[in-house]
C-alpha cells in the first residue's frame, strides 16, 4: 500500500516508516517539523529513512492535506502535541493541533476515502487505571484531592481511607480525562472512529502507553518520561521523579509500537476497535529511572524524588494487552532490559539540552505543581 503517515518525521513515525518499508509498503510523511521536537532549523531528521517522501506542512491546512492524500491507500495519524503538563497552559495550541488537525484530516478523507486508517490514541484517556478494593470489588478511582496530595499521601483511597489496588487496565475501562492532552487524544480517537464508521473507512485506534527508544527528542522535556531521564543522565544529573516514585506505569519499545501499527493496517478484523499497545508489565517509575541510569553506565547517580505533584498526573496505570494479542496477533517482543540497552547504545554520541527545570518552572508559575 501507499501509506501516508501524518506527524511521521517524529520518533514513532520514523520507526513506523522503517517497518512499513521493510514489508513492501511505500511511505509519504506530512510533518510540520515543530521546533520543540526538531530544533529551530527544522531540517529533515537524519534518522528518517531516505526512501520516505517528506512533505513539510501543517495538517490543519485543508489544501495541504488534500494534496498529500493523492494516490494514498492508507493513513496513520500520528500528529499530536504531547505533554500532559504543557497541555494545561498551552490549551489553545494543543486543542488546535490535536483536535482541529485530526478534524481537518477527516474532512479530507470524507471526500478522498482510503482503505484503512490508524489513529494514535493514548493511555492518558483512562486517567487512573483500573482498581479493586481489598475485598476484590472493581472500583472507580477518582482524582486524588489536592489536600491529600499536599500531605504526601499519594495512593488512591476508598471512602474509608484505604488504598485501592491497581489492576491491568482493559480497553473497556471508562475514560477519565485528567488533562487537556488526554481530552485531545480522546477526541482524536472518537472523531476518527465516528467518521470512519459514517464513511465506510476502516479505522483502528491504538492506545500507546509509555513509548521509548532511539530517535526520541532528548531536548524536549515533554516527549516522555524515559527520554527525560536519559537527558538528565547524559548531562550528569539525577533523573527527577514526582511524588514518591512508586507510581506504576507500563513501558513499550518503539519497535513493538511500529509493528502494532503495521499489523493494525493489515488486519481487517480490527476495524472499528481500540487496542492497548504496551508491554503489559507494571513497573514503578523509580525502578525505571534506576534501570535507565544503569543502562547508560552512570551508576554514580541516583533518582531524585521531588515529593511534588503535577496537575493532571495519575497514580497508577498499566495495560491489559490481551485484546491486541487476540485480534492483531501482536505480542511485545522487546523486553525493557533489551530496550534500555538499545536506547543506551543510540545515546552514545548524542547531545541533550536538559530542560527539565524549565518545564517545572513553567508549571510552578502557573500553580500547576504542588
Brief descriptors of the model:
370 residues, alpha/beta, Rossmann fold, seven-stranded parallel sheet, three-stranded antiparallel sheet, 13 helices, 16 strands, globular
Q: What is the structural class?
A: alpha/beta
- Main sheet: strands, sense, barrel: 7 strands, parallel
At the fold tier of CATH, the topology name is: Rossmann fold
Mean pLDDT, to the nearest integer, reads 94
Using the coordinates above, name the CATH class. Answer: Alpha Beta
Terminal Cα separation, in Å? 49 Å
Question: How big is the Rg?
Answer: 20 Å
Q: In the CATH hierarchy, what is the superfamily?
A: NAD(P)-binding Rossmann-like Domain
Biggest sheet, spatial arrangement of strands: 3-2-1-4-5-9-14
Low-confidence stretches: none
- Work out the count of structural domains: 1
The shape is globular
Helix count, DSSP H or I runs of 4 or more residues: 13
Going by CATH, the architecture would be 3-Layer(aba) Sandwich
Describe the SSE topology.
Elements: E1 2-6, H1 11-22, E2 26-31, H2 35-38, E3 53-56, H3 62-68, E4 74-77, H4 84-87, H5 91-109, E5 116-122, E6 130-132, E7 138-139, H6 146-150, E8 165-167, H7 180-199, E9 203-208, E10 210-212, H8 225-234, E11 240-241, E12 248-249, E13 251-253, H9 254-265, E14 274-277, E15 283-284, H10 285-296, E16 304-305, H11 322-328, H12 336-347, H13 356-365
Parallel strand pairs: 1-2, 1-4, 2-3, 4-5, 5-9, 9-14, 10-13, 11-16
Antiparallel strand pairs: 6-7, 6-8, 12-15
Helix pairs in contact: 1-9, 5-7, 8-10, 10-12
